[in-house]
Each structure stands twice: as C-alpha cells, then as structure tokens.
Amino acid sequence: MAAFVGIDLGTTNSVVARRNAYGRPEVIANREGANITPSVIYFGVDPPAVGQEAKEWARLGDSEIASFFKPHMGSPLYQLEFKGQSYSAADLSAIVLRRLKEDAEAAMGEEVDRAVITVPAYFGDAQRKATIAAGEAAGLRVMRIINEPTAASLAYGLNRSADVDETVLIYDLGGGTFDVTVARITPEDVAVLATAGDHDLGGKNWDDRIATYFAEKFAEETGFDPLDDPVALNEVLVRSEQAKWTLSERTTARVTLQLGSERRTFEITRDEFEGMTAPLMDRTRRLTEEALGEAGLDWLRLDGVLLVGGSTRMPMVRSYVAHMAGKPPRTGVNVDEVVALGAAVQAATEAGETIGDALPKFTLGMTAAPPPARKVIDVMSHSLGVVAVSADGSEYVNDVVVRRNVPIPAEAVRTYMHETHGGMNTKLEVYLTQGESAAPLDCTILGKYAFHGIAATDAEVAVDVGLSYDADGVVQVHASQRDTGHRLEMSVEPVPDDLSWLAGPPRTAAEGSTGEKVRVMLLIDGSSSMMGEPLAEAQQAAREFLERCDFTSMEVGLISFATNVALMAPATNNVRRLHAAIHRLDAEGSTNLSDALELARGEMVADDARRYIVVLTDGYPDAAKSALEQAEAAKGQGIEIVAIGMGDADRDYLDSLASSEAASIFVQGGGELVRTFGHIARVIAEGGRSLRIMSR
Question: DSSP letter string over 300-344?
C-alpha cells in the first residue's frame, strides 16, 4: 500500500515528514541530505531545479527564478512567465510539492500518494483551495489541510504527559507569514481557542528593512540607487539576509556591496537592526493580544509560549516574547521542523493509524512518553458572511453568518427576503465575504453564487442561505426556499471587476471601471505630536494603503509635513521606493500643512489622471487659513481631497479641508486608522469619482 506524509509547504523553506517504523514522526531528508528544502524554483534548466540549487542561482541574480509565491496562493492576478509558459502560485507550489514527494519516495522506498499539508492559520478560502489544487497537481491526495500553529501544537502535545491539561500560545513567525494561536492541550484533544495573523508579515520584512538601510547608504556615498536596478537590488537582498543571520549570533554585521564599478563596506549593529524593525515586532504584539482577547485570556493564564518558524531565531523575537509573556518561551523545539512533524502526526490520524504508548519515545526535547493521538479541533481566523442590504435600506453591509474562531467544521443558516416581482426575478445572487468589517469592500469577496428556481410569488420569499467551513477551512454554500423546503440549484458566476457600487446606496451593479490612470499624494503629519505610537500607526496605515493599490494604473507619492516639508517620494508605481520612503518618516517640529498642500499641487499639475490628496494629521496646522486656501486651489484644479484626523485634530477643520463630508474622517486608535487607509485605497483603485468612504 502506498505511503502518506506530512508537509510544511513554507514561504521560504519546505519540510516533509513521515511516521517511521518505530511509530515516531521524523523529518525526511531531501536528495542533498538536508532536512529543509528552499521553496525556490529555477527555470533556466530542464526540468526546473528546486531547492538549494535554485537558491544558489537566485543569489547570482538570475532572472529565471520563482520564490516567495506562497503569499499569492489563490490570487488570479499573480502570474509569472518562464519560457513562454504562465505559472500561478498554485502551479509553482505544485512543482515544489512534486519535488518533496519524489525525495520522500526515494528515502522511503515506496510510493507516496497522500499528504496532510499545512497552511498559515490566516489563509482564507481561496488560498486553501489553491493549496489543495497544488497538492493534487503534484500527484497527492490531500487528506487534510491543517493550520501551521495547530500542527506545531499537535507535535508539541505529543510529548506532554498523558494527563496533561494546559493552555499554550504558539507564536509562528515564518519567512513570509505570521500566525499566533492559543490552544488547549488535554489528554483527548488539541483544541484551538483563537487565532490571528498577517499573511504579509514574516522574515522577509526584516530582510527588507536591512536592504533599505544598505541601499540608502550606498546611494548616499555613490549616487547609485540599488532600488532602481533589479540586479543590484538582488545583491543587496542577498547580503541583507546574510546580515540578519549574522546578527542572530553576533552584535555587529559587516556587509560589502560590489555594485557595478562601486564597492562599499557597511556595518550594522544588532541595536540598529532592532530599532528599525521595532514596528514589525509591535505588529506581532497587536495580533498576539488580539488572539488572547478572542480566547478570553491574558498572559497570566497561559502555561507556556511555543516559538515556531525560522524567523523566531532572531534574539529580538525571543526577548520580545519573554517580555510580553513575563517568562521565557519554552525551548527544545526545532522551530523549522515542528510544523512538518505535526502534519505527519495528523496524517497518521487521517490514515486511521495511531502512535501507541509502547512505541519508542518521540522527543522534541521533553521527557514524557508519547500519549495516544489527540484529536484536532481547529478554528478559522476569518468570519464568513454575505453582502446584504442594511435594515433601513440605505447601504450594503457585510452580514456575518459564521463567526471567526468557532470550531470547524462549522455551519450557520441565515434567512433573507427576496422579491420575485411576480415571477420576473426567480434568481438570487449572493456575494460571499470573508472578513470582520461591516463594509463589504473592506472584506475579501470570495465569490458570487447564483441560486435558481425560486417559486415566484407577488410577495417577498424567505430564502435560507447556509454557509459552512469544512474541516480544511474550505467554504461550502447552499440555499433553500423556506416555505417549500426546496433546495435551490446553484451556479458560480465570475465576481465583477468593478465592485465600487458596494460603497454606495443599493442599486444595480455598474458596468465596469474606467481603467483610467490614478495619481495619489499621501500627506503625513510629521510634527512632534506624532512621535512614537501615532507615527508607527501612520506608517502601518500607509503600508496598508499601498497593499490595496492597483499599481498597473496608479501612482502614489509621499510628502511629510512638519516645520519643514519634505517630498519623500514623487508619484511612482515603484512600491519598494514607497516602502523605503515610509520607513524614513520621522516626527519633530510643528505642522506646516499649507506648504505641504502647495507642494502636492505642484506635483499634480498634469491632469492626465484622476488625482487625490490624502491628508493625515493629528492636530491643528500652523497657518490654518493658508492651508485652507491651498486646499481650495487644489480642488479648483480638479484634485479631490480626503482629510483624515486623529488625536487632537479638529473635526470642523477636516470638513473644511475635504472635498465632501464623506471624505472627512476622524479615526480612533486600535487599528481604525489602518483599516481606513486600506478602505480609501480600495475605493480609489476601483474607480469611483465620488468617494463613498465611511460616515463619522
């Protein structure tokens, strides 16, 4: 009979594990004898090279490289082309999985046809379906999808004593994603209580901060900016990753960059590195506290913290977690391998096998004998809902049906009224959402489902719409007519490209976006009152804005205004340059908004695009009247102004600055600023001339 394995399909590295002849889960070494296989593909040879060989080609700057594609799983917009063939993230993942399968078969001496594959806990429906499709394309039957932190807790729990009953927090910082999970381990099961995370936060973000630092230093000394040259940038990224590794062992790292004819050597200290990445650590703190809050716990009620993921080897992570928890994290776990080991444990359970007490001890650095296999009770980190019309009929809302952090599989049914108009409208369209915001456009629109065969009447018809998560976290949808009990026929239709109509009052969907160019200038308050947490939140909000932009048609610039006004970045579609500009934001002095608006107007003279100025301020400007005059002049140029206030900002003044009441927004803390910036970016990108953002 063919064999099964557990696979940790990682952003930067992947690991495969099995249950060996002694009943112990163990990692399977690849053909090079290494336990870890880089998730990198080189298309310069036939067949493509996968793993360490591909990574070596990447270090040489070869362009035929695919890497860091896992965060794009399920995205129809992500396509790479090599030798005339297009590849999605799922296609690329299938190549890596096929390589892992072949290596496992060579080591085990038998066919491998089944696998449990892990995913970040924060993966949504599209990413999970894409992972299953990748496994099937690699020749594997995917027995189950399991969240990475859950797999880690399962492997961890395997070595606790049989009568263990404890609550642990799994802090999982990988190469490209961050997840945090609170789990209860008992003799019978591993029950996840809550999870949170960010699929765009991982070790690569730490690499990028060092890369930006070195690139700016090199540009200052030579006049050549590596951010503008792909080959030079690759060299900087490689050296930056090496510097990060060095700083995990030493307090100083030295890097030599040979870019073209210029050669420079730079030093970076661990203190400097930790200072420039402090906002990243703070993002993990917020998510960790969110998960604890969802679980109804605090740090004092945890029995321990388990670190997972290669990026947790950074000393700053261990010290930061120890500071948050009030005690050091538990040790003895191989942070690179524990997820794959947990997947192997789950694979044995799915195959109907168990790990018995009489078998030799499996250890992760702990001494307890292995207990019987525990059942996994997992949760999903996103709520599931539908787009509905609000009770007063004034707006579209995200109506949550299945709440996040409930045990899966989970199902709920909600009744909606449908007007058939005497037989003219026997079809019900349901837009499925995944997210927490009341605004549909701030959530992920998973799909459009059409239900047919509603019995026509002259009155409203009650339709029961059922949504569910299965054990893999994959979404299922069905509907029935309440009065007849008849289950309606369902078809899946393409989601329209233009969903901007969801930001306005209920009406018929628009025919599509204009596709015209868009130019945006972000004006960020850099006065002294923004020092510390306000500036960090503003930087995170600006990054969220970039994440929601469509840079095929958009250009974004950044201006910082304090006593002095600085053009941090002219309007551009170079995302890396914009991230570097956001990183350089600082806070000192007063609030010179007038000069900032004048500078923005000068940068947006050309009228070949829809133009927006987005102002963020936490106080009252120095020359308030002059700033209003500049704002009016900008509006006269056809530029729309969005005014966002926080802290001590004056609401009436925001109204005067903004182009409309809807474009004047005051936000509180707790992540509202970040969500607001993301919403604004999406509305702008989707083509609405009249900004329908959010009422105050």
Answer: GG-SEEEEESGGGGSHHHHHHHHHHHTSPPB-S--TTTHHHHHHH
209 belongs to a structural domain: no
- Cα–Cα distance for residue pair 575/474, rounded to 1 Å: 32
Alpha carbons 169 and 167: distance in angstroms, whole number:
7
Rounded to the nearest 5°, which phi and psi values hold at 171?
A: -105, 105
524 shares a domain with 468: no
Residue 74 lies in a domain: yes
pLDDT tens digits, one per residue of 128-145: 999 999 999 999 999 999
CATH assignment at residue 127: 3.30.420.40
Residues 6+ apart with CB under 8 A from 272: 213
Confidence of residue 88 (pLDDT cuts 50, 70, 90): very high
Same domain, yes or no: 402 and 455: yes
The Cα 320–Cα 178 span in angstroms is: 15
Helix (H) or strand (E) holding 196, with range, is strand 189-198
Q: Retrieve residue 425's tokens.
A: 């409208």
In a domain, 214, yes or no: no
Residues 3 and 18 sit within 8 Å (Cβ to Cβ): yes
Range of the domain at 588: 518-685
Q: Please list the alpha-helical segments (H only) found in 517-623.
A: 533-547, 575-583, 593-603
Picking from 246, 310, 306, the residue whose alpha carbon sits closest to that of residue 14 is 310
Q: How many domains, the chain?
A: 3
- Residue 509 in domain: no
Whether the CB-CB separation of 414 and 93 falls below 8 Å is answered with no
| CATH code of the domain containing 595 | 3.40.50.410
Classify residue 33 by burial, with Cβ atoms within 10 Å: 0-12, 13-18, 19+.
Answer: exposed
What does the pLDDT average to over 18-43?
89
